[in-house]
Amino acid sequence: MAASSRGLAAPPFDLGVRRVRSPPPLTAPPRRRTRAWGRGVGRAGVRCCCPAEKAGEWWLEPKKQGGGGGGARRTRAEALPSLPFPSPRSKRLFKQQDFSSRCSPRGPAPESRDTPPKRDTGIASEKEWGINILDEKVSESGTNEDGSTWYRESGEELGDNGYRCRWAKMGGQSHDGSSEWKETWWEKSDWTGYKELGAEKSGRNAEGDSWWETWKEVLYQDEWSNLARIERSAQKQAKSGTENAGWYEKWWEKYDAKGWTEKGAHKYGRLNEQSWWEKWGEHYDGRGFVLKWTDKWAETQLGTRWGDKWEEKFFAGIGSRQGETWHVSPAGERWSRTWGEEHFGNGKVHKYGKSTTGESWDIVVDEETYYEGEPHYGWAEVVGDSTQLLSIQPQERPPGVYPNLDFGASERQKDDPPDEPLQQNHRFALISHYDSSQVNTSTGRFTVNYRLLLPNLQIREREEREREQWSHWISCSGSREKMRTAPAPLVLLLLVHGLASAASAAFTCNATGVAATCRSLVGFNPAQNTTYSAIASLFQVSNASLFGSNGLSLTTPADGAVAAGSTVRVPIPCRCANGTGWSDRTPVYTVQDGDVGLYNITVARFSNLTTYQDIGKANQLPDVNKIQVGQKLWIPLPCSCDEVDGAEVVHLAHVVAPGSSVEGIAMEFGTNASTLLRLNGMSDPKALMAYQVLDVPLHACSSSITNNSLDYGLRLANGSYATTANGCITCSCTATTYRLDCHQSVGQSKCPAAATCPGKLFIGNTSTSGCEVQTCSYTGYTNTSTPTGINISSTITTDRTNCGSDGGSPPGSDGGLGLRGFKWSAALVFLHMIWLSSLQ
């Protein structure tokens, strides 16, 4: 029986750590039930012509707790601070609520809407936004009796390939300018069948509160499966004007007609000295495989840290669940508990776990396996709730005029079963001429028009990206269309100077010696649908390292689909020299037919992670527009190995999305705006530009790896892992202690026989005797071809609480990075042992 586990309750602040019982056996229901974990409810639709309702304490808005927290496999520490941790994903409301219609442009002036968005409400529906775009062009403004002003505009933009964008804007401000609000709606379409409905709003009030919110849903045809696909997304952020408080949320949902579904959210919140984070995701492949995960953690400036995470993977009745709950008090009292389940599909379940209070269990029970293999809200529901999106009418296509054609579409997904052959072998089901009644909700197929061929989806996607680049500076208006249809050199000039004022994306790196090389990350956003193996090949990294950097299982299919626009963290070797950091002579890109210069390679191939000037300089090219097919180019990617505020970090090269802010990015990645500004040499947060490459520091786990080891620069961020020592050692990083946890890899036949530290401890294992805790820690390896030697260290730590008042470190001493607040004393004893083996 699946227990609800989407949130951590926040009882009154209590530093005492209570003993947690072993988990009782899970009870299976009599039959498979529908999904019980949904998304937030209670979304607040913004309505016109109604008084604005001021939301008190909007950044700490109380939220309904959905589901119980104490399931059999979700038992957790009860010593938690009383801070507003993000609420669980509560069940979605299927029935749409009534809503008030928008004002007519010729009606009364729009009322001031200076109310921030609500937290944890997920992705609103079409009806909750109530988007109503008029067919006529409107431009009007006025002044209310209280002196406040308002404006309202609407229009239409037309472009090539049947592109049409209808938009409406409204806004206003108080008489003294202390309160201001803006709202924009739009709908887009073209002859390829692409349709988009979206909205954006922002504002500030007299108290100094500010906020920004955007919402979008898109319909298009997947170029691999030839199926309809609907994607929905929302981003929200708000900041208090009176306290050091704010929050940020990013939600997304993706659906196709065969049941493939992906959902997720990233959340961050802060209130004075308290901060909390939450990330969760769900993936259904439509064939029975399901992956769900959640990772939550929080901290206070007093030193309290706590968190909870879990993951489950199932297919055909076989799978696993595992999780961890932990808590650290300001006094250094640490509690953690790990648990796991292995479901074999034969009625047997292996349950195991342990905690720092001495509990442990390892049993096999007779139990029916239960998991939710299908989303509770899927293709049929999203089609039913997207009537306004489906009803968007594109321009009328003149007889004999067809969408641009391009048969160079990327390779279809290898694991996607072939579709049934259509009449005359035309497999080109377009989305061009249909309404909502022409969509078969069971198959997702559109009515086929055999006069047309498959549209050039790459061109459409590229045009959409170009439009989005300007959406936050120039509305969906004629001036932007002129830029989009301008001659190529002019467009290139505008993009280069308008979006990337700096000619170089280099990061500052002043590290020297052995510290001048390290492991860094880049956030890759593919422009087209691709696969993990294709990304690994592009950046010349292994599939295993790519999976580890993204916290994915090694059993993840290498040809697993990666949707266009999603973010994949790619590990790169970084080398610092002359005050800057670049990827160490990698990756090397081979120029392909169709690459029309370095700028094209920068944008289309590597998603703005570097600049064409940097590529030209690194390869000593006299003309950045003169390249040859087959030519090898080193693509220098920005990176750094520097410490930040005295702590080791993993530097992430993050490409700024349109509409982002420094504060929002800081919230998303768990850092602060001042650090981002300082690292990137920025004095004004308003100077942030779309598609700028930003140096973002991620908290890294400390390690015992010595500086003479070949993997000395191994740094891992929270939630990631990596294999080292020729694959014989696997190291992971969690927020429990922020110390690198290394173990011998499983299933490696060419690795040496298991070696032990004193006391016959294997690497990564600990032994407790009284108040002494001995840990066998990995310290590195010394051979790159065969693992003939590995350094192993033994660490003895003493807990003063258990050992009495004499000895140990003074209260409040720092036991190292990631152990702040612990009352531990540590003496590190390195035992250099040679691990010899025969590879016969």
Automatic annotation (TrEMBL):
Task: Tell where it localizes.
Answer: Plastid, Chloroplast stroma
Gene Ontology biological-process entries: regulation of starch metabolic process; starch metabolic process
Please give the family membership noted in the entry. Belongs to the ESV1 family.
Single GO cellular component annotation?
Answer: chloroplast stroma
Biased composition annotated in UniProt, kind: Basic and acidic residues: 111-127
- Per the database record, which ranges form the LysM domain? 587-635, 652-696
InterPro entries with a match to the protein in the record: Alpha-glucan_binding_chloro, LysM, LysM_dom_sf
Q: What SMART domains does the entry give?
A: LysM (SM00257)
Q: Does the keyword Transcription apply?
A: no
Q: What name has this protein been given in UniProt?
A: (wild Malaysian banana) hypothetical protein
What are the record keywords, sorted?
A: Chloroplast, Plastid, Transit peptide
Region Disordered, annotated ranges: 1-39, 59-127, 393-423
What is the organism field in this record?
A: Musa acuminata subsp. malaccensis
Instruction: Read off the PANTHER family from this record.
Output: INACTIVE PURPLE ACID PHOSPHATASE-LIKE PROTEIN, PROTEIN EARLY STARVATION 1, CHLOROPLASTIC
